[in-house]
Amino acid sequence: xxxxxxxxxxxxxxxxxxxxxxxxxxxxxxxxxxxxxxxxxxxxxxxxxxxxxxxxxxxxxxxxxxxxxxxxxxxxxxxxxxxxxxxxxxxxxxxxxxxxxxxxxxxxxxxxxxxxxxxxxxxxxxxxxxxxxxxxxxxxxxxxxxxxxxxxxxxxxxxxxxxxxxxxxxxxxxxxxxxxxxxxxxxxxxxxxxxxxxxxxxxxxxxxxxxxxxxxxxxxxxxxxxxxxxxxxxxxxxxxxxxxxxxxxxxxxxxxxxxxxxxxxxxxxxxxxxxxxxxxxxxxxxxxxxxxxxxxxxxxxxxxxxxxxxxxxxxxxxxxxxxxxxxxxxxxxxxxxxxxxxxxxxxxxxxxxxxxxxxxxxxxxxxxxxxxxxxxxxxxxxxxxxxxxxxxxxxxxxxxxxxxxxxxxxxxxxxxxxxxxxxxxxxxxxxxxxx
Length: 435
Prior knowledge:
Layout: E1 5-8, E2 16-22, E3 45-51, E4 54-64, E5 75-81, H1 84-95, E6 100-101, H2 106-113, H3 119-130, H4 134-144, H5 147-171, H6 173-210, E7 212-217, H7 224-232, E8 250-256, E9 259-265, H8 275-290, E10 293-299, H9 306-314, E11 320-325, E12 341-342, H10 351-362, H11 375-393, H12 397-415, H13 421-428
Parallel strand pairs: 1-6, 7-9, 7-10, 10-11, 11-12
Antiparallel strand pairs: 1-2, 2-5, 3-4, 4-5, 8-9
Helix pairs in contact: 3-4, 4-6, 5-6, 5-12, 6-11, 11-12
């Protein structure tokens, strides 16, 4: 981290663009300005940015001395006019000072390496940027503030206590082994339960990060597209009285109670009359397999058909809600054994109940809103659980110690206390430049 780096940290092309500089030589930005700012740190000041006596831009600038900065290094921030030509000239001027362009995610990587945040918080930076629903943003902000680190540290504390007891029993078998053997199963079980809970709750975390996939399926003309339009609050899908109007998947983003959702309207599933319809039916079945929740739509105004019964059987083992649409019309008898929700895409009846049922089924909520959302973290927790199960089965204390150390390694890979450089590179290369 000896180099001083620079990059735009905002979009180029707007009224204003923010350019960051970080590193030991960041103070040298003052050489391009018409006034010295390092003597008045953390004060946003109007300056003229010049190179070789030629004016490049009039902007606002601030010098931020280490260590109380984002990266933990000296930093300069320039708020310039956002035009492409202006930004190119400002970046060229910074390059003339011997600075180099930042790599993807390098500012946040430096923040992690300088101890300004743990690795889980660093990864949350992009989740904050990409959040497209209220609760997605809340979960990302909590992770940025250390919610994941605190959960992991709680499990690590249990395992470190267990490991110290194991080590003592190995070193002093006559005095400590019996007590350690008695206490070890309980300590491991407590840690195991906490990890299992984190993994179970990660299902909602994945939903908050990636969005909940909800497939609306059924035979033709049961009102799938009308239902999708009602949930979206807009006429996105074409609706006609003709069966088979929808021939392909229609995928739209929305949010339910602050949770990001991808609604997928599918072609009516039946024996296809044409090649185009057959492809649509095949894609509908693929959407069923990949959905977090399948909304199986029946027409409540007509008796259940053989096609309905076939789809009910096909979706029986899935995370499914059965919807009786068109409940504003005359009702036909529905088997009492079929648990269902009555809705009307036309009047809006039952839609709030449907939304609540979808979220309760696929994304049960945790009180404090803190979730594991990152797939890498979830895999590390799963490996941790495997190691803890191995430790519980171990016949020898030294084997149990090895398994507990493995579990601690996987937990450390989440917060960054025990992580390979290659893993760090893969994490931060997914960031955008300037972050």
